[in-house]
Amino acid sequence: MFQGETAITIDDKGRLAVPTAYRELIAGASAGRLVFTYNPFETGCLWLFPLNEWETVRDQVNDLPSVKAVHRALQMKLVGAAAHVEPDSAGRILVPASQRAAAGIEKKAVLLGMGTKFELWSEQAHLAKIRQTIGEDEISDAMMNLKL
After folding, report:
1. CA-CA distance, 90 to 82, in Å (whole number)?
2. What is the mean predicted confidence (pLDDT) over 55-61?
3. pTM, whole model, 2 decimals?
4. Residues pairing with 68 in the sheet
5. What domains appear along the chain, each with residue ranges and CATH number?
6. What percent of the chain has pLDDT over 70?
7. Taking CA 3 as the corner, what is the angle to CA 27 and CA 119, rounded to the nearest 5 degrees?
8. Which neighbouring-strand residues pair with 148?
9. HEC-encoded secondary structure of 55-102
10. Is pLDDT of 106 > 90?
11. Conformation bin of residue 91: beta by default, left when phi > 0, alpha when psi is -120 to 50
12. Alpha carbon distance 89, 97 (integer Å)
């Protein structure tokens, strides 16, 4: 399980170094194979899945009937944009240039461990998101029983 927030630097070639704390977990889960794709729900953010987790998500998304426009949009953003990556000998992975540009990810980024996947945020989008508070009128029924 991935959790935690790590400030990341994207090098001039568009690579990020996978934090050492995650390297063994990723190697064990997917032999180091990862998949980048768009986050269809948040701007300024990409998703990064270990291959085994990605295959489950991919299959669920592809099983949606493509007669609905929202299903096709999800399929395009997730499956159509999926890019397979593997760490090099230094533990770096290449963030696809088209995805970096679309998400506005430049030199400084934030990698969040989100359970079964990672989120890679542009520094600006992450800062804006964490500065937002959750208002009382936004609290869902599922949130009411949390003991925070």
Report:
1. 23
2. 98
3. 0.94
4. none
5. 2-133 (3.40.1550.20)
6. 100
7. 85
8. none
9. HHHHHHHHCCCCCCHHHHHHHHHHHHCCEEECCCCCCEEECCHHHHHH
10. yes
11. left
12. 21
